[in-house]
């Protein structure tokens, strides 16, 4: 886990507000040089902490049916099932879980017929899936990409804290 300082957190917050803000403008807002912002952004991207992407509202582009599907699976086939689920174009995320469900996937569809086809013709044919439960999302009050690192509670990773104490 990478240690983020207040400049990293401030940069991330500004990019979450507007990912198209020019680096020169970000540097001015944060009181540092353009080169500093460019280097920080490059490091955050290289370390896999940050991706600057366009987000799409599925409903507005013809995919009003959004679902979560809980899956119980044969534990001996978990890796294979996870890889197979990730190949489906309709699937927006795959999460492996502990507890009552083994996986939960998110998916978007243009119609109820498309959802039914997915369940009957694609998901049902994945070897090792024992049971599914589909939850139709009526409204999304919050999206994952809106999550922000809580600056007040951001702490360096435990390994960094230990290294500082040893000094």
Can you give a write-up of this model?
This protein is of the alpha+beta class. The protein folds into two domains: 55 residues, Winged helix-like DNA-binding domain superfamily/Winged helix DNA-binding domain (Arc Repressor Mutant, subunit A), CATH 1.10.10.10; 79 residues, Lrp/AsnC effector binding domain/regulation of amino acid metabolism (RAM) domain (Alpha-Beta Plaits), CATH 3.30.70.920. Helices cover 38% and strands 18% of the residues. A four-stranded antiparallel beta sheet has the order 2-3-1-4. The longest helix is centred in the first third of the chain and has 13 residues. The radius of gyration is 21 Å and the shape is elongated. About 4% of the residues have low confidence.
Give structural attributes.
alpha+beta; 4-stranded antiparallel sheet; Alpha-Beta Plaits; 2 domains; Arc Repressor Mutant, subunit A; 6 helices
> Percent helix among the residues?
25-40%
**CATH superfamily assignment of the largest domain?**
Lrp/AsnC effector binding domain/regulation of amino acid metabolism (RAM) domain
Overall spatial form: elongated
State the separation between the terminal residues, measured CA to CA. Answer: 21 Å
Strand order in space, largest sheet: 2-3-1-4
Spans with pLDDT under 50 lasting ≥5 residues? 159-164
Q: Say what oligomer this is.
A: single chain
CATH class of the largest domain: Alpha Beta
Total helical segments: 6
The fold-level CATH name of the largest domain is Alpha-Beta Plaits
Strand content: 15-25%
SSE string, helix = H, strand = E?
HHHEHEEHEH
Q: What class, by secondary structure content?
A: alpha+beta
